[in-house]
């Protein structure tokens, strides 16, 4: 397994995050919620996308679902901060 890509939320656009996880890398994103910092790990096993948070493992069956998660949770860069 390759080394995980470690970034902060908003550092990369969703396309770059998706490219990394589809290439087999885990993407570890540091983010903040409720004034606490935590890490989320995004990965892909070849058929299912995973978003592993400190409290829950989310499964996404399609690329579109994973992109929606990245956008909704603020993990990827937006037009304002890209």
From TrEMBL:
Residue ranges constituting the DUF8001 domain according to the UniProt record: 1-77
InterPro entries linked: DUF8001
Name of the molecule in the record: DUF8001 domain-containing protein
Pfam families: DUF8001
Protein's organism: Natrinema limicola JCM 13563
């Amino acid at each position: 397994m390759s080394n995980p890509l470690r970034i902060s939320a908003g550092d990369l656009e969703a396309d770059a995050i998706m490219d990394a996880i589809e290439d087999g890398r885990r993407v570890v994103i540091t983010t903040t919620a409720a004034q606490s910092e935590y890490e989320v790990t995004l990965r892909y096993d070849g058929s299912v996308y995973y978003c592993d948070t400190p409290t829950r493992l989310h499964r996404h069956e399609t690329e579109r679902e994973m992109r929606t998660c990245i956008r909704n949770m603020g993990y990827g860069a937006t037009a304002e901060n890209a």
